[in-house]
Automatic annotation (TrEMBL):
Protein name per the record: HTH cro/C1-type domain-containing protein
Single GO MF descriptor: DNA binding
Domain HTH cro/C1-type: 8-61
Taxon lineage: Bacteria, Bacillati, Bacillota, Clostridia, Peptostreptococcales
Pfam families hit by this protein: HTH_26
Amino acid sequence: MEFSYKGLWKILIDRDMNKHELQELVNLSPTTIAKMGKGKPISLVVLARIAKALDCDIGDIVSTIEDDFEEGKDA
């Protein structure tokens, strides 16, 4: 399963912020920013900190992407 952070990137665009500004605001490591850029999972605690800093819900910043292989796993 992969994750999409398109919601977060859209919020940043709407607020005229870049990833570096988010990193400083929430005190994120460059590794965390890189993971999000690659659709990799990050800690729920970190997601909560981002959501709080941006005054939004976690669901506004991340969603899951089911890949075709996992969808057919039950068969």
